[in-house]
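Build the 3D complex.
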Amino acid sequence: MHPTTRTVSHPVLSGRRITCSLATSVLSLALAACVPGNARQDDSLYQALGGPTGVDQLVEKLLDRCYADERIAFLFKNADRRDLHRLISEQFCAESGGPCTYTGRSMTEAHSGLQIGHAEFEAFVEDFTDAMEDVKLPYRTQNRMLKVFAPMQPEVVDQ
Ligand code: HEM
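Done.
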């Protein structure tokens, strides 16, 4: 058989092809990270939460704790737990870099009229931290979540 008509792939050539496609992938990743407006979203926090299942379990534990916490449970008496679960899950997913869009109200709007003070906010943060412990999130992930949500305090307190 003439060498140029052989169909069996050549080990050296296919090796080169792999190297080349690897280089192309690395280059496009680098470009995606550099080009403004085309930056890939960092979803590492979302992954650390355990994706959709992890977020769902975390929100369930958070609401379990809030609804059972006599310091703040009364604030939730008129809230629809299913809606709240869905909206907080969307928000956790979106804020942690996951593939979701938050469709709820602004934080100010959602909490206006509830008269949430600093004591209630602290109780909520404690329940949130305990919920993150419940689902066994590592401290680093817990701290990253607190860092994302702590700045929202002024939009929640005294609205
Ligand atoms: C950074 C902290 C907080 C975040 C990220 C957060 C997030 C949310 C979200 C996404 C909603 C649903 C919005 C909507 O209905 O469109 C919501 C509603 C609500 N939140 Fe928060 N929240 C926070 C703090 C608190 C605190 C401290 C309390 C009470 C102690 C609280 C009590 C409620 C209640 C009762 C509702 C339901 C309101 C209603 O149905 O009218 N939240 N929150």
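The chain is about 65% helix and 0% strand.
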